[in-house]
Amino acid sequence: MATIPPELILSQAPQGSAGGPSPVALAEALRTLHGKAATLAQMAQLAPERPEAGEELGAAIARAEPWQRALVAQAVEDCGAMLDFGLSALGTLSRRGQDPAAPALVLWREFHAARAAMVAVLATEPA
């Protein structure tokens, strides 16, 4: 977990992003991310998640402060990249006839931890 206050992180962000992304755009990005995660869960031989998991994040985003949305947007972007590369590698394993379940489960755990961090950021009360 980072020990840098959000204000310092956001001060390093490009100008114009201090207001954070719109709740609608961020919720859409999260839906896309959860779509990738569903593919990953299938490769890890996990049961599909209940759809409400993503909707709960959407509700939290609607109540979030701009700095919270900015941090979550960065996390969504990072997780999306992680899943894109991971799913590509898992697809290569699968095409070679190897079982991708074990490495997919490891990637799923990384995604799950990142999502928990997003929830924690959204649950943070403003000081």
Please work out how many helical segments DSSP would assign: 5
**What structural class do the secondary elements suggest?**
mainly alpha
> What proportion of the residues form beta strands (DSSP E)?
under 5%
Output mean pLDDT: 85
Helix content: over 70%
Radius of gyration: 16 Å
Q: Could you list the spans in which at least 5 consecutive residues all have pLDDT below 50? A: none
Distance between the termini: 19 Å
> What is the molecular shape?
elongated
- The overall number of domains is 1
Largest sheet: none
List its traits:
127 residues; single chain; mainly alpha
Outline:
This protein has 127 residues and is mainly alpha-helical.
Question: What would you say this structure looks like, in words?
Answer:
Helix 2 (23-43) runs antiparallel to helix 5 (101-123) and helix 4 (66-95) runs antiparallel to helix 5 (101-123). This protein has helices at residues 6-11, 23-43, 52-63, 66-95, 101-123. It has 127 residues and is mainly α. The chain is built from 5 helices and no strands. It has one domain.
